[in-house]
Design goal:
A hairpin with a 5-residue loop joins strand 11 and strand 12 (241-249). It is built from 11 helices and 13 strands. 32% of the residues lie in helices and 22% in strands. It starts with a strand and ends in a 10-residue tail after the last helix. It has 3 domains: 2-89, no CATH class; 94-203, 2-Layer Sandwich (Uridine Diphospho-n-acetylenolpyruvylglucosamine Reductase, domain 3), CATH 3.30.465.10; 208-317, Enolase-like, domain 1 (2-Layer Sandwich). The chain has 327 residues and is α+β, with helices and mostly antiparallel strands. InterPro entries: CO_DH_flav_C, CO_DH_flav_C_dom_sf, Diverse_Substr_Oxidored, FAD-bd_PCMH, FAD-bd_PCMH-like_sf, FAD-bd_PCMH_sub2, Mopterin_DH_FAD-bd.
């Protein structure tokens, strides 16, 4: 057991201690999470964020720094767990550190670091949208710390992995002492205080499939995305789209999956891509902030949706024809 300082206190204020718990197994971690005030600690980035945020809010603080800001932009703690009095460290548990391939799915443990996802050669081949999203987070140093589960569980609408995973149709396995259940990416804010994400499960693409991730930073690498988009497509041998999926982030409370069902069967070309971009812009209601006005973001949503879908179609077209693609 380790006692941590919960934050940098104001002058004359005693530090507020926090207990760090280091379970040896997933089952032990789940039991520890049943205690009042317990919260999950993955790679430790979210806890560091809170310490730096307190420092910045202190009138005597020396201010922020680029590295501090980068950490702030990769917070891994959901809002309902930010008043924790103890942290259950799960980022190194073997049960959460695997990437497993089965017949139709790949299952990525919640403790796998984004840097590991970015570099996994089989994931690069099968789900480039996921590896591109992982590789776009902050810097390499940060990606070696941030866990997949932490990036998803934060429930932040501008985080990278939730957008890519929503477009890919990923499912979360969520565990507590008493239950195991599945959630979609957009349901992550339904996590209970005694639950954690065990893994993320993705279907293994078949046929002429392609995916791509695009992210627009209006100011620089140290900030949240202004707009981020993930696209997935599967083509038949005639070049018609048999699957289309597009998710947009940084616009509202979570990834927005655009309804493209009626476009199935359309030829995957410029006309289809333009329509996907138009629908993405029309289906989202971005908020204005320091990164851009709502009108500006709407234009960027259309542009980066076009880029993402173009990239996904190009990759699908590069896949050899099968001689008979089913719908």
């Amino acid at each position: 057991m380790t006692i941590l300082d919960r934050g940098l206190p104001s002058p004359g204020v005693s530090p507020d201690p926090m207990v760090l718990l280091t379970p040896r197994s997933l089952d032990e971690a789940l039991h520890l999470l049943t205690a009042e005030g317990a919260a999950v600690l993955g790679g430790g980035v979210g806890h560091t964020l809170r310490r730096h945020d307190r420092h910045r809010r202190d009138p005597t603080s020396s201010g922020s720094s680029p590295e501090r800001d980068a950490i702030s932009q990769t917070s891994s703690d959901p809002p309902h767990k930010r008043d924790a009095t103890s942290l259950v460290s799960v980022g190194s548990l073997p049960e959460l550190r695997t990437i497993l391939w089965s017949g139709e799915h790949v299952t990525i443990g919640a403790g796998v670091r984004l840097g590991e996802i970015e570099a996994d050669e089989r994931l690069v081949r099968t789900w480039p949208i996921v590896t591109e999203a992982a590789g776009s987070v902050a810097t390499g140093r940060i990606r070696r710390l941030v866990t997949l589960g932490g990036n998803v569980a934060a429930g932040d609408d501008s985080h990278d992995l939730p957008v890519a995973l929503a477009a890919a149709g990923a499912v979360l396995t969520v565990r507590s002492v008493s239950s195991t259940r599945t959630l979609r990416i957009g349901e992550v804010n339904d996590l209970g205080g005694d639950e954690l994400i065990q893994d993320v499960r993705l279907p293994i693409p078949s046929g002429r499939a392609g995916s791509a991730y695009e992210k627009f930073l209006s100011r620089g690498v140290w900030e949240y995305a202004c707009v981020n988009v993930g696209a997935v497509v599967r083509l038949d041998d005639a070049g018609a789209a048999r699957r289309l999926s597009l998710a947009v982030g940084s616009v509202t409370g979570g990834p927005v999956v655009i309804d493209l069902a009626d476009l199935r069967g359309s030829v995957a070309g410029g006309v289809l891509i333009d329509e996907v971009a138009r629908r993405a812009a029309a289906s989202t209601r971005p908020y204005g902030d320091v990164k851009g006005s709502a009108e500006y973001k709407t234009r960027m949503i259309a542009e980066f949706s076009r880029r993402a879908m173009t990239g996904a179609v190009r990759r699908a077209e590069e896949t050899p024809r099968s001689g008979g693609e089913s719908t």
